[in-house]
Write a structure and sequence with these properties.
mainly beta, elongated
Length: 373
């Protein structure tokens, strides 16, 4: 009897245990699904989760490495992800595995529209800052608006495709009115604009600037808005070299003084439009020897479109206080007089900017008799 009762007890224990084990086996763990990310040399992509349950929010961070591309869309199983304010993308995890795909497009430059255009004389390569000497300089890009017959408000949005090269915080925009260019005779119509780039906040590399402009007076219609896209390269300070052409400058001397063949003069040719950060010098001194016919001839490197000034003194150096030097330069029948108070007579500033490639320009110079020893 005792043996029978023990058998019944054991069977009951096993039965209860089996029920408990069965109950534990029926409890299922939450189902997770995988997130597969693409690989590319054009961009990097990161997810805040590798696996997730259905209904969880997933955040993706995409960084474009190819500066010729722009990010268009991000998809999770062919469903577009939502772009967040901070540049990330997000989606809600479905009850299935997810494969992420990224859509990019080639950036196309747009240099002109019927509303605004990028000026022809702008540089597409600019330099970083130097040693702090020129901390008041900016790297300016100029635009011109079509005649809008009284546009006095312009709304702009300027962004950079590569924040590591030119961050948006390094860019400012200054509108230029007709009166800024022509004084009191001009109007308050906005006719141009200057995009200023802070050289102390940019780094070497290439980026695309997207510049959107809208007429604040009449914003509707394509004729009142325009978007420019410009590729800008940043190089280290001093590593930008502007293309030059060889020019010949001839100076004919007319003076009461009797110059002789072999007399020595020092000519300084300066670039009035010198660009900070270039390898091109702001001025060059030339020691010249009088040829027959009271003529001085020099060949120099000229940057087309730049305005140059010249300063001529007797001797082989440029003294701080010139004693005997040329007072006037005559060019195209226009006399450019020097400034005796600043002791820079013999300073010519003007028409050299109109030189073209392979020009030979002759300037007549007259010595200042009042400065004779």
């Amino acid at each position: 009897m005792k043996k029978f009762m023990m058998t019944i007890c054991l069977c009951a224990v096993f039965l209860v245990s089996g029920i408990m084990l069965a109950a534990c086996g029926d409890k299922q763990l939450p189902t997770t699904y995988t997130i597969t990310l693409p690989t590319s040399t054009d961009y990097t992509i990161e997810s805040d989760r590798e696996n997730a349950e259905a209904g969880q929010e997933i955040t993706l961070m995409i960084t474009i490495l190819n500066n010729k591309l722009v990010l268009e869309n991000v998809f999770a199983n062919n469903i577009a992800c939502e772009e967040n304010y901070n540049g990330t993308f997000s989606f809600t995890m479905p009850a299935e595995n997810v494969t992420i795909s990224v859509q990019t497009s080639q950036i196309q430059e747009v240099l002109s529209t019927n509303f605004v255009w990028f000026d022809d004389d702008n540089l597409y390569t600019i330099t970083e800052d130097g040693d702090g000497t020129y901390d008041w300089y900016t790297r300016d890009l100029n635009i011109t608006f079509a005649d809008k017959q009284g546009m006095i408000i312009v709304n702009e949005t300027i962004s950079s495709s590569n924040q590591g090269v030119i961050p948006d915080t390094a860019i400012t925009f200054d509108p230029v009115t007709d009166s800024d260019l022509h004084g009191a005779s001009g109007s308050n119509e906005i006719v141009k604009g200057v995009i200023k780039i802070d050289p102390f906040n940019i780094h070497s590399g290439t980026t695309y600037l997207t510049m959107e402009f809208v007429n604040g007076n009449y914003s509707y219609g394509d004729s009142n808005r325009g978007t420019l896209v410009v590729r800008i390269t940043v190089v280290p300070y001093g590593e930008l070299t502007l293309e030059t052409v060889k020019e010949t400058l001839v100076i004919d001397l007319f003076s009461e003084l009797q110059y002789s063949t072999g007399d020595t003069f020092c000519l300084r040719i300066g670039d009035s439009d010198h660009i900070d950060g270039t390898s091109n010098p702001s001025f060059v001194d030339y020691v010249l020897t009088m040829e027959s016919g009271r003529r001085l001839i020099v060949e120099f490197d000229y940057i087309l479109g730049h305005k140059y000034w010249i300063r001529l003194v007797e001797g082989d150096t440029q003294p701080n206080i010139p004693v005997g030097y040329v007072e006037e330069f005559v060019f195209d029948n226009s006399i450019e007089s020097g400034d005796e108070e600043s002791e820079y007579t013999g300073y010519y500033n003007g028409s050299l900017m109109y030189m073209e490639a392979n020009d030979r320009v002759t300037i007549d110079a007259e010595r200042n008799p009042a400065l004779e020893d």
